C-alpha cells in the first residue's frame, strides 16, 4: 500500500504545471483509499510553488481537516500503536534540548555529515558546501502578512561552509550552534532576494533566458549544494476534542527539485501529535537511485547517533 502511495507522490512531484494555461488549475487534491483500511485514507495536496509556499499550503490543509471534522461522521475508534522509531527520535530531541540546540540545526549537520561520508575522500578531507534555508517572510512584510494568506512569501538564507568528517565529529554541537547563530542573523540577507523576479522583464522569454544564464554562471549550474526546507510543527486538532471525527496520524511534505536550484531538497515536517518526516527530492541524472538510498540510510544512522555525541573538550 505504501509503495502505491510512494509512486503517486513521485508522479505528482514530476508533474509539470502549465502556468501559461489560464484555464487549468495550479493545484490538485487527491484522496487515496484502500479497501483493507476502510476508516483511513491518504490525502495528497499538491500545488505549483509559484502560487503558494509551504505555510499557505499547510493553512489550506488544516482548513480541509477542520471542514471534514465539522461533518456528521461516525467512525469506529482506533488506537495508535507506538513504534520504536518515535521513541528513538525522542532521545534525539531530548539530547538536542540538553545541548540547547534546535532539532533543525542537528538535522542540518547530519545531512552534511552524511554527504561527507558518501562523497568525501577520507575523514580528514574537507568539502565546501553552499546551503540554502528557506524561511517564512510574512512577519517581515509591512504590513505583516497573516499565515492564512496562501501567497508566496519566502526568503532564503544562503550559507557557505567547509567541513571534514573529523571536524564535524569532534565538534558536532558547536557546528549546530554556529548554524543557529547564522540563521538567527541571516534574515536581512535573505530578504534582499525577495521580489527580484519583478525586474527580470517580459514573461516567459526573459525569465527563461534568465534561468539559462543562471545555469551557465553558477558552479556546476547549481545555486547551492542542497536546500533544507523545514515547514516546522503543524498544530492540527485531534480526537482529544470530542467534536472532531477525523484524526491526522502523520504528515510529510516534499517539493520538486529544479534544474538551477540545488543538488537536492530535504523537506522536514512534523505535527503536534508526534513524529517528524524528512523527504528528499532530486533531479534524475544528478544522482543515482543507489546514491539517494545510500544518503537516506546514512542520514538515518547519523540522526539516531545524535544522542551519542558529547560536548567537545576545550
From TrEMBL:
Pfam families: AATase. It comes from the Eukaryota. Signal peptide: none annotated. InterPro entries: Alcohol_O-acetyltransferase, Atf2/Sli1-like. PANTHER family: ALCOHOL O-ACETYLTRANSFERASE 1-RELATED. This is Condensation domain-containing protein.
Amino acid at each position: 500500500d505504501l509503495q502505491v502511495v510512494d509512486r503517486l507522490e513521485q508522479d505528482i512531484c514530476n508533474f509539470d504545471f502549465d502556468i501559461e494555461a489560464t484555464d487549468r488549475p495550479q493545484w490538485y487534491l487527491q484522496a487515496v483509499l484502500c479497501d483493507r483500511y476502510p476508516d483511513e485514507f491518504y490525502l495528497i495536496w499538491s500545488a505549483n510553488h509559484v502560487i503558494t509556499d509551504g505555510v499557505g499550503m499547510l493553512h489550506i490543509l488544516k482548513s480541509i481537516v477542520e471542514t471534514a471534522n465539522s461533518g456528521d461522521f461516525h467512525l469506529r475508534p482506533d488506537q495508535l500503536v507506538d513504534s520504536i522509531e518515535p521513541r528513538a527520535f525522542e532521545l534525539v530531541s531530548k539530547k538536542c534540548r540538553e545541548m540547547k540546540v534546535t532539532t533543525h540545526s542537528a538535522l542540518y549537520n547530519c545531512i552534511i555529515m552524511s554527504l561527507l561520508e558518501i562523497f568525501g575522500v577520507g575523514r580528514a578531507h574537507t568539502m565546501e558546501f553552499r546551503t540554502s534555508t528557506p524561511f517564512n517572510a510574512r512577519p517581515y512584510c509591512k504590513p505583516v502578512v497573516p499565515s492564512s494568506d496562501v501567497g508566496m512569501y519566502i526568503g532564503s538564507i544562503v550559507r557557505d561552509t567547509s567541513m571534514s568528517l573529523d571536524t564535524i565529529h569532534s565538534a558536532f554541537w558547536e557546528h549546530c550552534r554556529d548554524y543557529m547563530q547564522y540563521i538567527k542573523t541571516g534574515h536581512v540577507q535573505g530578504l534582499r532576494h525577495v521580489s527580484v523576479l519583478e525586474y527580470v522583464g517580459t514573461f516567459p522569454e526573459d525569465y527563461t533566458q534568465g534561468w539559462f544564464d543562471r545555469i551557465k554562471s553558477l558552479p556546476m549550474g547549481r545555486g547551492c549544494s542542497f536546500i533544507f526546507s523545514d515547514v516546522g510543527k503543524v498544530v492540527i486538532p485531534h480526537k482529544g476534542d470530542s467534536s472532531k471525527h477525523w484524526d491526522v496520524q502523520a504528515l510529510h511534505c516534499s517539493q520538486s527539485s529544479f534544474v538551477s536550484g540545488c543538488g537536492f531538497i530535504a523537506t522536514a515536517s512534523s505535527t503536534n501529535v508526534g513524529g517528524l518526516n524528512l523527504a528528499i527530492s532530486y533531479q534524475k541524472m544528478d544522482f543515482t537511485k543507489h546514491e539517494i538510498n545510500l544518503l537516506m540510510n546514512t542520514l538515518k544512522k547519523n540522526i539516531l547517533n545524535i544522542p551519542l555525541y558529547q560536548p567537545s573538550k576545550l
